[in-house]
């Protein structure tokens, strides 16, 4: 299985560029570290955990969070992957975009100065 994963990912990503991503992906990382070390070696060392973004959005942007696409909860690998992608796309379009636009507006209002 590792050879098939590695062959596929090598066709689509250069070494060290693609992070492991998904919901609660730390459990997947432990499994992959143990059973597919060459596959993990090909990936970037950082992880994108959509669950973390979900929790921050729920706390910091409750109105936008109400509109997050609902999951089927089939717990099938392909469904989980596709739903994680859709969920992250939602956060990018609705929360990160708004945050970036707000930040730009504040920078303009402050005459180009940023605050920490």
TrEMBL record:
<comment type="similarity">
    <text>Belongs to the oligoribonuclease family.</text>
</comment>
<dbReference type="GO" id="GO:0000175">
    <property type="term" value="F:3'-5'-RNA exonuclease activity"/>
</dbReference>
<keyword id="KW-0378">Hydrolase</keyword>
<dbReference type="InterPro" id="IPR022894">
    <property type="entry name" value="Oligoribonuclease"/>
</dbReference>
<feature type="domain" description="Exonuclease">
    <location>
        <begin position="3"/>
        <end position="87"/>
    </location>
</feature>
<dbReference type="InterPro" id="IPR013520">
    <property type="entry name" value="Ribonucl_H"/>
</dbReference>
<dbReference type="Pfam" id="PF00929">
    <property type="entry name" value="RNase_T"/>
</dbReference>
<dbReference type="GO" id="GO:0003676">
    <property type="term" value="F:nucleic acid binding"/>
</dbReference>
<protein>
    <submittedName>
        <fullName>Small fragment nuclease</fullName>
    </submittedName>
</protein>
<keyword id="KW-0269">Exonuclease</keyword>
<keyword id="KW-0540">Nuclease</keyword>
<dbReference type="InterPro" id="IPR036397">
    <property type="entry name" value="RNaseH_sf"/>
</dbReference>
<dbReference type="InterPro" id="IPR012337">
    <property type="entry name" value="RNaseH-like_sf"/>
</dbReference>
<dbReference type="GO" id="GO:0005739">
    <property type="term" value="C:mitochondrion"/>
</dbReference>
């Amino acid at each position: 299985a590792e050879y098939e994963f590695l062959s596929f990912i090598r066709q689509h990503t250069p070494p060290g560029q693609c992070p492991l991503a998904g919901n609660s992906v730390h459990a997947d990382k432990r499994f992959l570290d143990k059973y597919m070390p060459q596959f993990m070696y090909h990936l970037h060392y950082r992880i994108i955990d959509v669950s973390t973004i979900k929790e921050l959005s729920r706390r910091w942007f409750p109105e936008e969070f109400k509109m997050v696409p609902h999951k089927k909860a089939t717990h099938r690998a392909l469904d989980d992957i596709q739903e994680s992608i859709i969920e992250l796309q939602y956060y990018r379009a609705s929360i990160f975009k708004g945050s970036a636009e707000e930040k730009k507006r504040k920078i303009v209002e402050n005459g180009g100065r940023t605050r920490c």
